[in-house]
Design goal:
Elements: H1 12-21, H2 35-43, E1 48-53, H3 56-68, E2 73-78, H4 85-99, E3 103-109, H5 117-124, E4 129-134, H6 144-153, H7 155-158, E5 166-169, E6 173-177, E7 192-195, E8 198-203, H8 206-217, E9 222-224, H9 225-231, H10 244-258, H11 265-270, H12 277-282, E10 286-294, H13 311-321, E11 326-330, H14 338-349, E12 353-359, H15 367-382, E13 386-390, H16 397-400, H17 404-407, E14 413-416, E15 420-423, E16 427-431, H18 437-442, E17 446-451, H19 453-466, E18 472-474, H20 485-495
Parallel strand pairs: 2-3, 3-4, 7-14, 11-12, 12-13
Antiparallel strand pairs: 1-8, 1-10, 2-5, 4-9, 5-6, 6-8, 10-17, 11-15, 13-18, 15-16, 16-17
């Protein structure tokens, strides 16, 4: 990945998470840091441990610790892997794991990948790293004329993306949820950050996550990077990981991750005495029944054009159908298909309360999706849905975002990206599914359903906090006035476009 990323001044709290990513040394580690995980899994056969990662620094700490302590395998799926600071440090951490013999496999969607060809190829040439690109019709190894042809001849296929986010270590421990691998998903960006949510899981559910990964890995949609570059002549015949340009790329990546210049002075002082934070986090794990939801590669057979549904869509709809008293949802985008409207209408007829937390025009990063919501907002409110639109300056950011104090003068926008549903305060879904037609019919999605009332209540309380007047506005037409006039003008344009199936 490109290491010419912008430099970020890290806070002491988030530096704990980056300790493993930055190639720095722990002060004191137990002889076998994974022993406590092995013991917990062995003592709870058939059960899954889960812990909801609500804060960016916790989510990053978990990933960093797991990469550092992987023994045999790391398997990763992401929709976005950026070349910013977080993406670069995470890439270097995977390289170090591969150097010590861990087999690393990565699947990244083609649409938004921004890694330069030489760095992507250099990583793929490492003997312990394999990288595959999902549905490569837009970017990697695709000339401009071919991209245009792909859109014109297979519009549905060009819009079918892998939205999965899974991170699996040794087939024992995994993370899934809303976060992509980029600064803004871990509270690191200076201009725009997301309120997001992941889940750490260990034990019984992880094999099904790995099975899903294998299905994607072996599908025709996932194409090795080397094959894509051979196609356009970028991969030189006989080029290996020992070639000078490849070795230089590795040195540059390692140099960036270990350079003191990339860390504020107070952070360098703190790094010398870091406790083993992951054990404390793992102590909060709740054990019970957890289901993994996933779509098949391609989402569906494609015979229904831009419709067609999927396995995750069906599973989540079933949860709503079986709700008895309340459905609580958090989704960055809220564009209901006709089927979804009917699903919620039936729930309301049964007396089920439905509350939804979503972005306001002031906070959203997707004007096209907001235009779809704006076109149906009045109808949804008339149905009895209680909708709360997240403010770009919520009061909760001072507690959720640990490094907000350091960025206060820059006033970064804070927006929702979490995809969560709580049913009857008894079970909770955390994953990648947005409440829109794209997640319903086009993009592959994943997530876990945790059957545990204590976890469900904790997540429900978190969402309820996000709905407070200091954090959200009650949905109404006049809420849009808090957004800049230019944003209002642009969203009005998109409201006239016939793009609802693509939102």
């Amino acid at each position: 990945m490109n290491v010419a990323a912008r430099r970020v001044r890290f806070s002491p709290v988030l530096s704990l998470a980056l300790l493993a990513c930055g190639g720095l040394v722990y002060a004191a580690t137990p002889p076998d840091p994974r022993a406590f995980i092995d013991t917990q899994i062995a003592a709870r056969a058939g059960l899954t441990g889960s812990y909801v990662l609500d804060r960016g620094e916790e989510a990053l700490l978990a990933r960093a610790w797991l990469v550092e302590h992987a023994r045999r395998t790391i398997e990763v799926q992401y929709f976005i892997w950026s070349t910013d600071n977080i993406g670069t440090l995470a890439t270097e951490a995977l390289l170090r794991a591969a150097d010590r013999g861990v087999r690393v496999r990565v699947i990244v969607d083609d649409l938004l990948i921004d890694a330069p060809d030489d760095s992507l190829l250099a990583l793929a040439l490492h003997p312990n790293i394999d990288i595959r690109i999902y549905n490569p019709v837009h970017s990697v190894g695709v000339p401009l004329h071919r991209r245009i042809v792909n859109i014109l001849t297979d519009f549905r296929g060009s819009n079918q993306r892998m939205h999965d986010k899974t991170f699996i270590v040794d087939g024992q421990i995994a993370i899934t949820g809303g976060r992509n691998m980029a600064d803004e998903y871990f509270d690191f960006d200076h201009q725009y950050n997301f309120r997001d949510r992941d889940v750490l899981v260990l034990g019984a559910v992880v094999p099904s996550m790995r099975s899903s990964f294998e299905q994607f890995w072996n599908s025709s949609y996932a194409v090795p990077v080397e094959r894509l570059y051979e196609r356009i002549g970028v991969l030189q015949k006989g080029l290996t990981a020992d070639a000078a340009p490849v070795r230089q790329m590795y040195r540059t990546l390692r140099g960036y991750a270990t350079s003191p210049a990339n860390f504020a002075p107070e952070i360098r002082a703190t790094l010398a005495d870091i406790p083993s934070g992951f054990q404390a986090l793992a102590a909060k794990v709740t054990w019970g029944r957890v289901e993994f939801l996933s779509d098949e590669p391609g989402k569906n057979a494609g015979r229904d054009g831009l419709a067609g549904g999927g396995r995750t869509t069906t599973a989540l709809a079933t949860l709503v159908e079986n709700a008895r008293s309340e459905v609580l949802i958090q989704s960055p985008y809220l564009v209901l298909s006709d089927a979804a409207i009917e699903l919620f209408r039936r729930a309301r007829t049964r007396g089920v309360r439905i509350r939804i937390s979503t972005n306001s025009l002031g906070s959203t990063d997707n004007l096209q999706a907001f235009s779809g919501y704006r076109n149906q907002r009045s109808e949804l409110l008339a149905m009895g849905l209680e909708i709360f639109e997240y403010r770009p300056d919520p009061a909760v950011r001072t507690t959720v975002m640990q490094r907000y104090i350091a960025l206060r003068e820059q006033s970064p926008v804070f927006a929702l990206h979490a995809k969560t549903m709580v049913i009857d305060a008894e079970k909770v879904y955390v994953g990648t599914f947005n409440l829109d037609p794209r997640s319903e019919n086009l993009n592959t999605e994943v997530g876990v359903v945790i059957h545990d009332s204590s976890q469900a209540r904790l997540v429900a309380e978190s969402i309820a906090t996000d709905m407070l007047p200091t954090n959200s506005w009650r949905a109404a037409e006049d809420v849009d006035r808090y957004a800049p006039w230019s944003k209002r003008l642009r969203v009005a344009f998109w409201q006239w476009m016939p793009i609802k199936p693509l939102l």
